[in-house]
Structure formats: C-alpha cells, structure tokens
Amino acid sequence: MPIVGGISNALNAAMANPSPILGAWDFFVYLFTNGGWIVFLVIFLSGARFAWVYYIENEYDKTRRWVMLAIDVPKDNVQSPKAVENIFAHLAGAHGSKTLQEKYWIGNTQDWFSFEIISIGGYVQFIIRTIVQFRDLVESAIYAQYPDAVITEIEDYTTGYPSVYPHEHYDLYGTEFALVEDQALPIRTYLEFEHTLTQEFKDPLSALLETMGKLGDGEQLWLQIIIVPIDDSWKKNAIALIKKMIGEKQKKKNGLAGALLGELSNIGQTASTQITGAPTGAQKTGSRTDDLPSRMLYLSPYDKERVEAISRKIKKIGFLTKIRSVYIAPKENFVVQHGREALIGTIKQFNTSDLNSIKPDTKHVGVHAHYFFIDWRKNIKKTKVMIRYKNRSVYRGRNPFVLNIEELASIWHFPQTTETVPIRHMVQKTEFKRIAPPSSVPFAEGVAKEPAAVPKMAPPPNIPLG
Predict the structure, then answer these.
(1) Nearest Cα to Cα of residue 368 among 176, 155, 221
(2) DSSP letters of 374-406?
(3) Cβ–Cβ contacts within 10 Å for residue 310, how many?
(4) 360-394 per-position pLDDT tens digit
(5) 58-111: per-residue pLDDT in tens?
(6) Fewer beta carbons within 10 angstroms: which end of the chain, N or C?
C-alpha cells in the first residue's frame, strides 16, 4: 500500500538526517506527499461535518416555540401511576424519522418534552414543557386519563434567576443523574411499591413532595425529566445482552472480506481432508454442533431474574431520558440539605442492588470540587448546571439513557389522595369536578387553556412565577 510504503521510506529518510527538527519535518513532508494527505483530508472533513451539523441544529433549535403547561392534579385522584404511564405511551407518537436533507441541511432534530416538578417557597406544581405544535398531543393525553385536570399556560419559572455564578444574592446546588448499570437493566418501578395482599400503594414521591411542601421563603427546588421519543433500535443491544447472559450462540455478521476468507478456509479444509483423510471440524468428536442452544435452564436465580427483568423492560416503549435537579435560594436562606438529601433520597428508592440504580453524577456534572481552585471550579459547574437546566438541553452534560414508560411513570406521576395531609394541601389541585373534558380550546399564545366555568387556584401572591 502506498501509505505504508511512504511511512517506511519517510522513517528511513528521517533517520538519515542528523538534525532532529529537519528529520521530523522531512518525515511529515514525505508522508503527506506519498498518500498521507488522505488521512488529513478525512480528519478535516469529519471536523467540518461536525461543525456544520452543530451549527444548523442550533439555528433550527432557535425556531422552536415552546409552551409551559401547569397541570393541576384532580382533588380526588385515586389513579395509580399506570395512568401517567399511558400518557407517556401517548406521547411516543411524537417520534418521526428525518430525511438526509432534514438532518444535514435544515438541522431538524427530534423534538422532546420536559416533565418537571417544582416547589417555589413550598408551592408545588407539576409542569410539562413542549413545543407549540405538540400542545394538542399533550393535552389530549392528559385529559384522556384525568378528565377533571386543569391545564394552564404559564411563563418559564426559571426566568429572572441568575445563570452565572458566583452571584451576590443567590446560591445554587444542582446535579444530573446517571444509570449505574447498562440501560437494558430496569430500575425499581411503581409496581414494586404496591403491597401484594392489600394492593396499597406507597408513593415513592411522598418524601420529595413533603420536602418541597416545607421549603421556606425564597427557596426553590426543581426536578426536570427530559424525554426524547426514539425508535426501537435500543432494544437490539438489550436482546444481544440477553443472548450473551444465557450463552446463546450468535451469528457473526461478516463483511465481504470475512465472506471471502470463510470461503478460502472451507476450500482449504476440503483439500486437507481429501489429501490426509482427516475429518473436518464438523465431523470431529465433541463438535460444537452438539452444544446446547442456550444455558437458560442452568442459570442461577440471580442471572435468571436479570434476564427476565430485561425482557420485561423491552416489552414497553422507551424514551431517551435526561434527569436534572436544581436547588436555588437566597444566600441567607440557603440550606443545601433541602435540595441534596431530598432528591438523592427520593431517587435511591428506585435503586436495586441486583438490577439497576440511578445515581447523581457529582464528579463530572455536579457542583463538587476538591484540592485545587475549589471555589472557582464549583462556580463554573454551577453556571453550567443552571444554563443546561434553563435550556432543557438533551445532549449537554451527562449522556442520556433509555427508560421505558413504566420507569418514567414511577419517577414522575401525580400523588394520590391517600397520601399525607401536607402533600394534599401543598400540591396544586382542581377544586371543582368537570363533567367532561373540553372538546375545543383556543390555542392563542398566552391564553390560559382552562374553561371559564372552572376557577383556577392561583399561587400565593408572594411567590414569583417568572
């Protein structure tokens, strides 16, 4: 090959030159002129492609028009998170494939949703952020499960709070969450929080809502769950993991070169058999053809449970998921435990030691720093966390992972009326029962999406919402 020969000749020329600088220069010149330019061209084109796609995607993202919808939970809600699971399944219809022109010329990317739970001074609200085009889809999904829900358009509650730190008035704690194991393994879901005999549901969000309801003046705690509709390609890796765990034979996909080598190997084996009379590999005693197709029956209970858990997860629709949290308050009222322990403790309820767990990424994305330039590095991380939260960024920060609709409904769902008194009083709920969901609602920007006959409980006047 010309490149390999060029490298060899370039090395000989460089070694013959007594000057190390001139020798290195001669090496690169000779390599470049003898086919090495192809490598530099490939690197340049790859970088140019990345820069172009990044630019057009950012430009396209500026054209998106977002709307924030506050959902008031029904006052007498008795539905389990199964209803919210159906909402997520409904939103999977937003997925759409993109053409090459849309990807590399227009910059069109898959649209996403942000499901949020916030507390502003103890006032708790459930919020969904979506593009205007999917407002119909979101509202129909909610009304189908909660006919008495009231949906109101609000301003972005993050507006007006500082993005750059340090700040003279505010301090911040924030982080992103990541999976401990492979995303094919599920976390603990709401089905495991129901008593097998009494069917009583112990809501894992109770502790978080209790803490949110007890925040003081100026304290704010935000939880953000971004979901991106995707196809079923993520299930292929999960199926491959199952086959690996049960020892099932997997056919290797060989390219053209592999097929040619395989044919040459078969010809060689045939010729060897005819000459020597020795049996081929398929005729030898103890051949692999006698092996079992899998060892599922011989798995330990631990491995068998993991295989069954993966199988259950891939049966349901999956979303690419990003989870963030922010606790912000004036410096005189800042109590980091209100944001850190409450969120981490709530998330840990979905962890299992034999399947999967969710953990805060305090090393790469959180606001922690050690040893050198501690305050400076902490403030940089706080700035990044806040900017990414405000932008609802999908791919900035920690890599997203796949959760199915059952797992998502376990982390984000409306509380039931059987929960404790503080939660029932602090979470915003509708006060009147509607006979039927509205058949048509105006969609003008800035118009509240609620019938005039149903009064909306306003937040306390001392709590800002923008």
Answers:
(1) 176
(2) HHHHHHHHHHHHHHHHHHT-SSSSSPPEEEEHH
(3) 22
(4) 886 666 677 777 888 888 899 999 999 999 999 99
(5) 888 889 999 999 999 777 777 889 999 999 999 999 998 888 888 888 888 899
(6) N
Six token digits for residue 447 = 């118009």
Amino acid (1-letter code) at residue 453: A
Can the peptide bond before residue 451 be classed as cis, meaning omega within 30 degrees of 0? no
Contacts 24+ apart (CB under 8 A), 102-111: 103/53, 104/52, 104/53, 104/56, 105/56, 106/56, 106/60, 107/53, 107/55, 107/56, 107/57, 107/58, 107/59, 107/60, 107/61, 108/60, 109/57, 109/60, 109/61, 110/228, 110/229, 110/230, 111/64, 111/229
Place of tokens 């349901």: 316
- 3 state DSSP class of 79: coil
Query: Where are the domains positioned within the chain?
Result: 2-58, 65-237+308-426
Q: Return the C-alpha torsion angle 238, 242, 244, 250, nearest 10.
A: -80
Distances 253 to 136, 249, 256, 257 between C-alpha atoms, Å:
44, 13, 10, 11
**364: enclosing H helix or E strand:** none
Q: Which residues contact 176 (CB under 8 A, 6 or more apart)?
A: 322, 323, 324, 325, 360, 361, 365, 366, 385, 388, 397, 398
C-alpha to C-alpha distance for 337 and 343, rounded to whole angstroms: 9
Whether 184 contacts 238, CB under 8 Å:
yes
Cα 342 from Cα 173, distance rounded (Å): 12
Buried b (16+ CB within 10 A) or exposed e, 84-116: bbbbbbbbbebeeeeeeeeeeeebbbeebbbbb
